[in-house]
User: Fold these one by one.
Assistant:
Number 1:
Amino acid sequence: MNKIHAIALIVFLINPLNILAELSGYPGEIYALKVENQEISSNLIIKIDGDSYELIPLPFNKQGKTIKVNDRDILIKEKDFGESRITITNTSMVNLSSEDSQRAIRESKIIKKAINTYSRDMKSDFNFIKPVKGIISSQYGKRRYINDSPRSPHLALDIAAVSGTDIVAPEKGRVILIGNFFYAGKYMIIDHGHGLLTSYSHLSMINVNENQFIEKGQKVGEVGSTGRVTGPHLHWTVYLNKIRINPESIIQDNFLQSIL
Ligand SMILES: [Zn+2]
């Protein structure tokens, strides 16, 4: 055994976990896994500088665990995103009547079905722009408390702006769902292709139609306070393969380069 082998063996013996967790990332991020054979996966594959990468969304709810992709383990590291406490004085929006509760269940099925959309007629270059000018009022990943009781984490980005502020498409796409829902209020989903979708909640106005193709930067609606809210804001969700990812990371400049 030469010196280098001896050092490698010692590192392996004293720190095996780090070696096993060679691939890792934070919840809500996208992991770019270099691939040779493009036929092996239904995940989004994108070419950067001549190399192919499979884009893997890292689920928030798998923190501290590994996910397996093409026989590779990717560790999702733990991260503290902080907490957010909101008060909703209209208790009928918190403790639902059976009618409202059935409506919410019905609507969540409609939304879930749309989230499953995987179209191949478009492909994003991941050059997203922020859909609305405003102040970020709640970030991705925060532990949520409504009237002091714990709720599901906030896996979206809230951007606060006055009612009527323009919302534009962050990337080209096609509108696949428009609705007026109990929690989300006036709502829409845009499909950007290959499992990349964005959704928009609490709008006051929607300026596009279902199935309409839209350009990046095109106005799609206006900020409002419909559904369950404490004030006017856009609740913006970004999905990749049905996993809610961190919208703030995708709007940064040179996003794809940043994940290599
Ligand atoms: Zn929100």
Number 2:
Amino acid sequence: MKQACVILMCIGVATAALAHTGVKNAAVKARMEGMSRLAAHAKVLGTGLRTGASQAEMTAAAAALRHEAGTIATLFMPQEDDPKSEARAAIWANWSDFKARSDALVEASAVAQAATTPAELNVAFRRVGAACSACHKVYRD
Ligand code: HEC
């Protein structure tokens, strides 16, 4: 499924691994690592859609994604900064909107977790990708 790859590229999964090297602020580092875990779970889903991974494997990845998405608000709550951070100050000026966008990812992941066919999962995965992009567009440099 070509679309899955396109979504993964959009959300920056390919470059996730080295993005937070050299970050000194521990809170910033922690939220970046959370984002990297999100990206890793999304990658399992995107790759699995393409290769036809088992339903159990996909449900587990979606559950992990949902869990990780549920930690975004806590990880970002302290307004911390670092020269390497790509987070915009608008996050804390619009906290309830930021929180709503993290909730949207939790919901999209729950839909992916509940999917029982590849077609359903494909739709849910696109919703996941849209939730990542919707937040990055406004709150990430
Ligand atoms: C509610 C907002 C929000 C959602 C939803 C969100 N992100 Fe992020 N993401 C951010 C912000 C803000 C940053 C920048 C953090 C920083 O640099 O301090 C970021 C950074 C990242 C990074 C770079 C991490 C690093 O090491 O610098 C990756 C990769 C990433 N996000 C992937 C994802 C993926 C994949 C999803 C969806 C499955 C997602 N994000 C959903 C807000 C969000």
